[in-house]
UniProtKB/TrEMBL annotation:
<dbReference type="InterPro" id="IPR006767">
    <property type="entry name" value="Cwf19-like_C_dom-2"/>
</dbReference>
<dbReference type="InterPro" id="IPR000571">
    <property type="entry name" value="Znf_CCCH"/>
</dbReference>
<feature type="region of interest" description="Disordered">
    <location>
        <begin position="175"/>
        <end position="195"/>
    </location>
</feature>
<dbReference type="GO" id="GO:0061632">
    <property type="term" value="F:RNA lariat debranching enzyme activator activity"/>
</dbReference>
<dbReference type="Pfam" id="PF04676">
    <property type="entry name" value="CwfJ_C_2"/>
</dbReference>
<dbReference type="GO" id="GO:0008270">
    <property type="term" value="F:zinc ion binding"/>
</dbReference>
<feature type="zinc finger region" description="C3H1-type">
    <location>
        <begin position="117"/>
        <end position="145"/>
    </location>
</feature>
<dbReference type="GO" id="GO:0071014">
    <property type="term" value="C:post-mRNA release spliceosomal complex"/>
</dbReference>
<keyword id="KW-0862">Zinc</keyword>
<dbReference type="InterPro" id="IPR040194">
    <property type="entry name" value="Cwf19-like"/>
</dbReference>
<keyword id="KW-0863">Zinc-finger</keyword>
<dbReference type="InterPro" id="IPR006768">
    <property type="entry name" value="Cwf19-like_C_dom-1"/>
</dbReference>
<keyword id="KW-0479">Metal-binding</keyword>
<dbReference type="InterPro" id="IPR036855">
    <property type="entry name" value="Znf_CCCH_sf"/>
</dbReference>
<feature type="domain" description="C3H1-type">
    <location>
        <begin position="149"/>
        <end position="177"/>
    </location>
</feature>
<protein>
    <submittedName>
        <fullName>Zinc finger CCCH domain-containing protein 64</fullName>
    </submittedName>
</protein>
<feature type="domain" description="C3H1-type">
    <location>
        <begin position="117"/>
        <end position="145"/>
    </location>
</feature>
Amino acid sequence: MVVLPVSYHIAGTKGAYYAREPYCNVNAVHVTRFLGLASVGNKEKQKFLHALSPTPSSAMAAAEISAKPPNTTLSPYTLVDQLDRPKETTKRASDIELDSQYWRYDVSNKRQKHGNGDTNKVCFKFISSGTCPRGEKCNFPHDADAREQFLRGVCLDFIIKGKCEKGPDCNFKHSLQDDGENHSRKRPGSSNTNANRSKECWFCLSSPNVESHLVTSIGENFYCALAKGPLVQDHVLIIPVEHMPNTLSLPADSETELGKFQNSLKVYYKNQGKEAVFFEWISIRGTHANLQAVPVPSSKAAVLKNIFTLAAEKLGFEFVTKKFSNNSEGRKWLRTQFDKNFSCFYVELPEGSILLHLIEENEKFPAQFGREVVAGLLNVADRADWRNCTIGKDEETKLAENFKKRFQVFDPSQ
C-alpha cells in the first residue's frame, strides 16, 4: 500500500458526496484532500461513509510529508482570494490560478534595484529556491540579484516588498548587501567582514540583535543559550563567541571547551533520565554556527541511529557512520572530513556514533532535517519548525533563568 502524504478536510453540511483532488497549501508543505459526505440514508444513495487509514505525521519522514501526488492541484482558497480582489478582474482565471501559486508579493518602489522595471512582481519560487517549475514559460522575472540577496541572509519580505512587518522580531537582515558582505567573495578572516556582519547577527554577543535573555552561560570560546522556539524543554544551543560559520572551523584548542560544555549537558540530561543528541547543519552560506543539543528520553535513545538512517534513505542518501570511544576522538575525525567548500550535516549520538553527510552542490537538503527527525521520534511533529514554537520574551526569560539555576552545578564556565 502506498502511503499518500495528505491531510483531510471532511465536511457534511451540504448533503452531497464530493471527492476533490489533493491540493497544495499556501503555508504548509503537505497537501490536503477535501471530502464532502452525503446525508445518511439519502435517496440518491450517495456515500455518507468514508473509511480512512491515515499515517501520523510524526511517523513520516520530512520527504514523505512534503511529497506531492501526481494529481495535486493548486490551492482553491488562494484562487478564491485572488478572484475577490477587484484589481485582478481583468485577468483570465488560468492566469490568476498560476499567479496564486508562484507569485506572492507586490514589489514596492524601494525594490526598483532588482527585477524588471516594467513589472511590479517577481518570481517568489525562484528567489526562495533557485528554481521555478515553469522555466522560460514563467510570466515573472527570475531575478538573480534578488536571489543573491536572499542567500546573503536578507529578509525575503524586505527584498520583495521593501519592508518587513515583523520588525525587530525578524532574524534576517533589513538592508541590501553588496559584494563586500558576501563571505564567499571576501578573504577569509577579514576583520571588516566580521565586524559588519556581527552588527546584524543575532548570535554575536556584541550585536544589538542578540537575544541576550536566552544566554545561560559564557565561556572563552563558546557560550550556551536556550533555543528560540525550543523543540523540547532544555533544548540548548552551543554557539561560538567568535563570528564563525561552523564549529569545525575554530582553532583545534577550542575543542576542549566545547567538549566540556557537551559533557556537562550530557550529565545534566542524564540526571533527568535523558540522553543528549547533538547535531549541526553546516551551510557554505552559513553565518554564525550553532551546535544543537536536544535531550531525548533514555528509553528512546537506542533507536536514534535507526531513525536518522531511515530518514536519510527517504531523502536518497546514506550517512557515513563511525563509532568512537569518546567525544574528543569523534570531533577530531569530523574535522578531518570537513571541507569548507561543501555544506554538510552531522549528528553525534549518545552511544558514541557520528553520522555525517557531505552535501553535493545541487543537492536539496532540508535545513531543519535534524530537528524534524528528533521531532518525529518524540511525537512532536508540530514542533519541527521552530517558528511554530515561539513564545513571549517574558516566558523565554523565565525559562532561561530556571535552566541556569538547574544547570549551575554542571556549568563548566562557573
